[in-house]
Amino acid sequence: MIAIVLAGRRWRSLLDERLRQMGHSASRMEAMAAIAYSPASTTQIQVAKRVGIEGPTLTRTLDMLEADGLVERLADPSDRRNKHMRLTRAGYKALGEMFDIMAGWRQQLLDGISKTDIKRNLEFLSVLLERIDTGLTSPEDP
Questions:
Q1: pLDDT tens digits for 69-112?
Q2: Is residue 85 assigned to a domain?
Q3: 129 in a structural domain
């Protein structure tokens, strides 16, 4: 299991290095992707949960993204305390550029690994992540 932890850390480090050239980071990309692939009614709290970080940490990231014109916070008409999140046009453009950069070096990293092996490992990681999330959000009764 340590290989999974190390691979994740090194992947993120490499991603940060590549995105830094554009003035972005893995944290910014993760927040933007979570917003882009969530329903329009998604709140800031739901985005934080999806990304797996605490609300205040996400708030700082969103403040920067909003200041850069990449994200908008919209008031929830049913609860003024909640804010719905959405990317701006500039946000979608920036996210697309980030994905393009990631796609190039991802292909290099995966070169020589069969599509079957990649698919099998992605399925394993998806199941593992789901079990971890379930275990963290629904602890068993003693």
A1: 999 998 888 887 888 899 999 999 999 999 998 888 888 889 99
A2: yes
A3: no
